[in-house]
Amino acid sequence: MVDINESLLNMTAEEIKSKSNVEVKTLVKDLSAISSSQEIYDYTVENQLTVFGLINNAGFGVFGNFSETDLKAELSMAGVHVLTPIALTKLFLKGMLERNEGEILNISSLAGFQPGPLMSVYYSTKAFLISFTEAIARENKSSKVRISVLCPGVVNTNFRKNVSADKEAKINSMNSDPRQVAQYGIQKMRKGKVVSLPSISCKFLAFLPRIIPRSTARNIVYSIQMKNRG
Length: 230
Description:
This protein is an alpha/beta fold. It has helices at 6-19, 36-46, 71-99, 120-139, 158-163, 178-190, 200-207, 214-229, and strands at residues 2-3, 27-28, 53-56, 102-107, 145-150, 195-196. The strands form two sheets. It has a four-stranded parallel sheet. Mean pLDDT is 89; it is low at 164-173.
């Protein structure tokens, strides 16, 4: 497991070890750094670790008008959401294909299906993850490597706490338990589903922009964002 937050990383590792008879190795890395992917890959090679599954789950959000938000934070977000998944997938996919086994699960969002005023870079990077995953899944369809993207709505994790000033969203009908969302994504990936949406409401909202004007979709998202921020 890799994360920038060492204390939470170690806490999670201990929780896993206490509940399952497995060995957990941890690396503290800033996944926005372009060098981190190669360092992670080199660590697995040096320690003779065969990576069967890769889950690109790290992420964060920045809220506000694009003209006013912090450029450094948004470039960092683009590194975590786009550049690092590209690099890690490139580095580990080759070995999976040579062994003809493995799994890659990218964590996108319902946000990836529509424009996202007030979180423009976040929504855009999540759209990239969906398109990227679909493309490489099709390229490797004849192999036994499963490649999938999970697109949940609001999930009760630290992400929402960090991006919301109120710490609680006003519109919370799509709140989901992270364990259930994770289980859903893994189950669907192992059944060959390339794009998975973990609820009926997510499936409906992902489809909605196809049948309404994009200007309407933009206005709806903007309204929801403003209500969630209070």
